[in-house]
Specification:
The chain is an alpha/beta fold and 525 residues long. The protein has 21 helices and 20 strands. Strand 2 (124-128), helix 8 (131-145) and strand 3 (154-156) form a beta-alpha-beta unit. The longest helix has 17 residues, at 4-20.
């Protein structure tokens, strides 16, 4: 049966072959898939165009469901350059080769350094689950090298199901399919999940993205001392369900860097990154977020105190059960003047609360001044209000810098998913100053970058806040707490820099981020 997609690619391949004077064999799989070698006139072009034509035969919907996004040439070239580095005569493999973009980029990179095409071709390996993709890669490489690809160097296989018959390679590159099990159309079938769990063990969790599993495959295909560089969703750096992948990679090697492409050039609906992994030197499992934070310009800080927020306070947050228990009892203040104000993350500013000034979205609708009919609450919702209805700190969960507000009077009800910090009343302001400090925002990003809704944002959790170190310079901390109360941004930042022992670079970085959420006059800009 003729594949209409193969016909499109085969016709362009035949045109390029005639233009280049390349004698492609008659038994190529691409011709078979297309129902024969197409008649063509000479028309010059680059071999990369074949993969681009292949992707163009898929609708946007088909690309999203299959995770099939051809790697643009600039992205492929930049990724390969980082992966190959200064290696001489490396072997290079791609376990999800698609239309061959990364293998072509590797070939061009090595020839540009003075290597011969025929020698480079002998050191390229690739597989893909899609026969047409493999056939496209084969022809593209043959057109580039003006000779056939060595037998056995390309194959049709699922890298997640079987190991290809390759030697251990120096460099593994790839742009694997991004298939999140959270999506209805990309969710794995039960039998597939079982097979993956049997192969990958604890690394395979309920919502592990398929792309993360390719990292493990790539590490197993690389020789000791080899390099792995695969495009990944940024969530692999910090998401809970990618923790198993991170731990498994740590047993195989170490992350030496994370590259963030400024413009990936393709339409995957996620932010991407490229972890650069050196295989063969295991490291203790640790946060990968620090690499993403560094790539995004976050200054690296080390906070040396042994005492943490958890030593002085309790941190907690409500969840879905509490939310649904409260949402049906939310009213407008004009309707229920005796109700308790409900404060959402969007109403929290750096040191202030905009309840009644900005609208809040609760239960799918906007509220101008939402209040809660506390008397009607039951179960866990009522318990949440009893536990957190007094003096407290409230911390926003999606933000650029830590936004914390002191509720000294216990006036407000924390909405979901606001984090609540419970401590003796006299300690609320000092703890708020510590949490809001420039050093702590940087410290948290080193541990949580990649988990927020946007690449450069910070996602705060109750568990993470408990681990925040307290300042060691008590006098500077007290000064910073007073400046926090006075909403004096400059004095606060300077005092807390002394309290934590950080330099001007941290303060300046934070000041630029904080200006979007705190003006000297108070309130959000």
């Amino acid at each position: 049966m003729v594949d209409p997609r193969a016909v499109v690619v085969a016709r362009r391949a035949a045109e390029q072959a005639l233009a280049l004077g390349v004698d492609l064999p008659d038994d190529l799989p691409l011709w078979r898939l297309a129902g024969g070698r197409p008649a063509a006139e000479p028309l010059a072009g680059d071999p990369e165009e074949l993969g681009e034509r292949l992707e163009a035969t898929l609708s946007r919907h088909e690309r999203q469901v299959g995770g099939a996004h051809y790697t643009p040439r600039p992205l492929a070239a930049a990724l390969v350059a980082r992966a190959v580095g200064d290696r001489r005569e490396p072997t290079v493999g791609d376990p999800s080769c698609g239309g061959g973009a990364l293998l072509l980029a590797a070939a061009r990179h090595l020839v540009a350094r003075g290597e011969r095409r025929e020698d480079v071709l002998e050191r390229l390996w690739g597989i893909d689950i899609d026969p047409l993709a493999v056939a496209t890669t084969e022809v593209a490489l043959a057109l580039w090298a003006k000779r056939p690809v060595p037998a056995g160097h390309l194959g049709i296989a699922d890298a997640l199901a079987e190991r290809p018959p390759w030697p251990a390679l120096d460099v593994i590159v790839g742009n694997p399919p991004f298939l999140s099990p959270l999506g209805a159309e990309t969710a794995r079938a039960h039998d597939t999940t079982g097979r993956l769990q049997a192969r990958f063990g604890d690394a395979m969790r309920a919502y592990t993205d398929t792309a993360g599993l390719f990292l493990l495959v790539a590490c197993d295909l690389a020789a000791p001392g080899g390099t792995v560089a695969l495009l990944q969703p940024q969530s692999v750096l910090a998401a809970r369900d990618a923790a198993g992948v991170r731990d498994a990679v740590a047993h195989r090697g170490r992350v030496v860097d994370v590259w963030i492409p400024t413009d990936p050039g393709f339409s995957a609906a996620v932010d991407v990154c490229v972890p650069i992994i050196e295989v063969g030197t295991p490291e203790a499992p640790q946060s990968w977020s620090r690499h993403l934070a560094r790539a995004n310009g976050v200054p690296m800080v080390e906070l040396g105190s042994d005492r943490t927020i958890g030593d002085e306070a309790t941190t907690t947050a409500a969840f879905r059960t509490e939310y649904y228990g409260m949402v049906e009892h939310v009213r407008e203040h004009t309707e229920l003047p005796s109700g308790r104000p409900v404060v959402t993350t969007g109403l929290l500013d750096l040191g202030g609360c905009s309840w009644g000034e900005r609208s809040a979205r609760i239960g799918g609708r906007a509220w101008q001044a939402p209040v809660l009919d506390v008397a009607r609450l039951e179960g866990r919702a009522a318990d949440w209000v009893r536990r957190t209805g007094g003096p407290k700190l409230m911390v926003a969960t999606q933000t650029r810098v830590v936004e914390v507000v002191v509720d000294a009077a216990g006036e407000w009800i924390a909405g979901v998913p606001v984090v609540v910090v419970l401590a003796p009343p006299e300690r609320l302001v000092p703890l708020a100053a510590a949490l809001a400090s420039p050093a702590v925002t940087a410290w948290l990003l080193q541990r949580a970058a990649g988990t927020a809704l946007t690449p450069t944002a910070l996602k705060v959790s109750a568990a993470l806040l408990r681990e925040v170190p307290l300042p060691e310079d008590a006098a500077a901390w007290s000064e910073g707490a007073l400046a926090f109360q006075a909403r004096d941004l400059e004095a606060f930042a300077a005092a807390m820099a002394r309290a934590y022992g950080t330099d001007d670079a941290v303060t300046q970085w934070w000041r630029e981020r904080a200006r979007t959420v705190w003006s000297p006059a108070g309130g959000r800009r």
